[in-house]
Amino acid sequence: MKPFLGTDFLLETNAAIKLYHDHAAAMPIVDYHNHLCPRSIAEDIQFDNIGSLWLAGDHYKWRAMRWAGVDENLITGKETSFKDKFLAYAEVMPKFLGNPLYHWTHLELYRYFGLEGITLSAKSAETVWEVCNSKLKEKQFSARGLLRMQNVKMLGTTDDPCDDLRWHKQIASDPSCPIIVRPTFRPDPAFKIDKPGFTDYMMRLSRTVGFHIDKFERLLEALTRRLDHFGRHGCRAADHGLDSMLFSSIPSADKLNLIFHTAQNGDPLSNDDVAAFQSAIQVFLGKEYAKRGWVMQLHIGATRNNRTRLFKALGPDVGVDGIDDRELANPLNQFLNTLDKSKALPRTVLYCLDPTKNEVVVTTAGNFQDGSVGGKVQAGTGWWHNDQLDGMERQMTQLAQMGLLSQFLGMLTDSRSFLSFPRHEYFRRLLCKMLGEWMEKGHVPADFELVGNMVRDICYNNAAQWFLDER
Q1: Given the DSSP bridges, would you call strands 29-31 and 152-156 parallel, antiparallel or unpaired?
Q2: What is the residue-wise DSSP string for 57-69?
Q3: Which of 15, 138, 274, 361 is the most exposed place for a label (fewest CB within 10 A)?
Q4: Cβ neighbours of residue 227 under 8 Å, at least 6 residues apart?
Q5: Which is nearest to 302 in space by CA: 248, 244, 237, 257?
């Protein structure tokens, strides 16, 4: 029987063991999509305690705690101490067997805090609390220190177009910071015209750019200015969060202005109007990204804020979002084709939360390879509900069989936690497990230079080429 999370965790063949330890383990991390706070890195903050560090904003944990029967006050209650929340999390941890949180939690305890061999439970909670909090007082456990421990070379944060990016500027000008932190342009509020708050966002964007956005053309001008601002601060990528993929032919400027004014007046919009406006903005932005040499990421297929009572009490991103199963293939291909027809399709990464759409995503990506760069349109890694063993292996298997796994950009955390980076180790072990099994079965040559090079590319080199311009 193997030890829990031992040296060869997930590595079930001799080939996998060699691939991981000789080729994957030491590679730096390019985490090109996450939600970390750049201010925390700029100020190199120390964290108060393991409870706040783990539980202050992690909706993965909140969702599982509710499922285990924990009272909401012990999850998100404003009057409840983080120690009480931590103790509640520890008490239900034995119920998490089979959930990736069980692995992630213990990898974080082992890799950061040296607590190998301890399993979190009500029995061990006080010990874990004391050991972690004692270490968090040490300088090497600051925000930057935690990133250094995991060999993080680059982070791509997720940033609103109105952000002044002052913290990114401060980080870039600080020679003591060893990590590259680049902003990512996230323009969702500017094209989700049917969502509450669109008019308020137009006012906010107007204040940011210094002129009144009173028609569609002025919105495009405002977005262009913010793209220029982001470019001056090192941005190399954009990200669009699309609950569903909508696409229609682009109407005239007069029609787009009419749709814009209808939304500004608070009048109802038809589905066709929403699709037309979103399509026009996204095509415009796609062309701008291509012009600038940026990467466009599309996160598609979440159904959000499904539990009204909790959404009204706590707001978005609290663990009540699920998988949407609406149509993807036709609108996605039409959108990419519209950009490609004018030779303005940027390098693109496609993520879909619905795992039954993996084949659609991979084959769609294959439609738009043009030889200009390997894997120009990418099938992104298993996202959110799918960034676990089965989801990631399924995604990589389908990518290998219908596309080219060798061009894959690999793992990202998509996380708000400074302790989430052992997920890269989790991914790398799984990758080596898969490839090691292929070698053992004779599906690929028993050539460690050949397969090891592929491992290094997927773990680091491919992402470094895309997001760090390393050739």
Answers
A1: parallel
A2: S-HHHHHHHHHTT
A3: 138
A4: 185, 285, 288, 292
A5: 244
Q: Where are the alpha helices (DSSP H) in 20-99?
A: 38-42, 50-55, 59-67, 82-92
Angle at 406 between CA 25 and CA 104, to 5 degrees: 40
- pTM as predicted: 0.97
The C-alpha atoms of residue 373 and residue 462 are separated, in whole angstroms, by: 11
- Residue 303's DSSP bridge partners are 322
Q: What is the token pair recorded at 165? A: 């990016």
Phi, psi angles (nearest 5°) of residue 70: -80, 135
**Tens-place pLDDT, residues 118-175:** 999 999 999 999 999 999 999 999 999 999 999 999 999 999 999 999 999 999 999 9
Q: Which residues of 8-37 are buried (b: 16+ CB within 10 A; e: fewer)?
A: bbbbebebbbbbbeebbeebbbbbbbbbbe
CA dihedral (463, 405, 416, 62) in degrees, to 10, reads: 180
C-alpha to C-alpha distance for 362 and 397, rounded to whole angstroms = 11
